[in-house]
Amino acid sequence: MTKLLEKRLSRNVFIVLLFWLVVLTNQVFAKNINLQETPLRIAVAANFAPTLKHLLNSYPNKNKIKYQIISAATGTLYQQINHGAPFDLYLAADSNRPKKLEQAQLIVPNSRKSYAFGQLALWSASTNFSDLAQLNEFSGYLAIANPETAPYGKAAKQVLEYLALWSKQKQRLVTGININQTFQQVRSQAVPAGIVALSQLKINNLNGLVIPSTHYQPIAQQLVILKASKQVTNAQEISRYLLSAQSQQILHELGYLPVPDSNYPTITNGNGA
What we know:
Blueprint: H1 2-37, E1 40-45, H2 49-57, E2 67-72, H3 74-82, E3 89-91, H4 96-103, E4 113-118, E5 120-123, E6 142-145, H5 151-162, H6 166-169, E7 173-176, H7 179-187, E8 193-197, H8 198-203, E9 209-210, E10 219-225, H9 232-242, H10 245-253
Parallel strand pairs: 1-2, 1-3, 6-7, 6-8
Antiparallel strand pairs: 3-10, 4-10, 5-8, 5-9
């Protein structure tokens, strides 16, 4: 009788242990699945969002890394990050905000990189500008992004100052919150002309007058990987891809100046080839 009881107890203990082993295994499996299904959250400046989508469509490992693009003004995203927004990768339209995040030790060390340099263009949906000298005779309203808060607006002001037109034009300026709003103001013809991002014209198959980069300080657009990210490895892969020769060539075609670095990182596909 005692042996029978011991046998039953042993069997019950085995069943209980097996049950908990299955539960724990399922929990670990579910945790891994959840990690894989959590998209990489990419916070990107509004002006670069269409270009980023275009680039990621050509990403060799796009089926390996799931991502979500959150688009807003550079300053808005910066404030959200400071308030704990769960972003993994931040692509700003300037270098100022990424530097501040680095100084606050909120980014992965050495992750701050310039990924592109923005260019400006003078454009109108109704008037053909062939020379910047035409601005001397232009008497209509001119749209630019806000020079106080928008990197492209600051550069537009520098262009007008370079041309000695700031004092003449500033009374007839229509300032947008960001370069996207400025572009829409001109495209809708609510404002007859504006200084916009060349990339906006390129991606919409429009033509404008490219403003020489010597007329304004470089618009260095930088990225950082946030220290709070749970997907640093994936963020590093996307960062390397944006800095690769393939991406830099696409960026050049889409109206950006490439990063001046000949040692571009090598991007492999999911098979390691």
